[in-house]
Design brief:
mainly alpha, 7 helices
């Protein structure tokens, strides 16, 4: 319960624009529940708001590493790659894993990020997954 409360306070502080309080509460949330992906997501949201994309990505990856059988961790990382990093190769990789774990989820919409990334990856003219990506 302490972690949930701290996470909610982090979300509120983030909405209020108080990034330092948001980060502090996210850290407390993680301290109280170090096996929660949600506490890592809270830290990632703060990093995104600060414009530190590499750090946000790291938190999302840590959430996946912490809970690799949770489709939501993969989905959240994939959406981050799609919306923020614009990396369609990574988007496809992560969203495809989420889809494999939860193919009947209501997040899968025709023309959504998974479809866009799949089309880009499968298009021979697209540089989405060029060598080294």
């Amino acid at each position: 319960r302490l972690a949930d409360r701290a996470e909610r306070r982090s979300t509120k502080a983030l909405a209020d624009g108080d990034l330092e309080a948001a980060l502090d509460e996210a850290r407390w949330a993680h301290f109280f529940n170090p096996v929660s992906a949600d506490t890592l997501f809270a830290k990632a949201r703060v990093a995104e708001s600060k414009g530190v994309e590499w750090r946000a990505e790291r938190y999302y990856i840590r959430a996946v590493e912490l809970q690799p059988d949770n489709p939501f961790t993969w989905y959240t990382l994939g959406v981050f790659e799609f919306d923020v990093r614009k990396n369609l190769c990574a988007t496809y990789r992560y969203l495809n894993e989420a889809y494999t774990l939860d193919p009947k989820g209501n997040q899968w919409t025709k023309g959504g990020p998974l479809d866009v990334a799949r089309d880009a990856v499968n298009d021979p003219e697209s540089p989405a997954c060029a060598a080294g990506s």
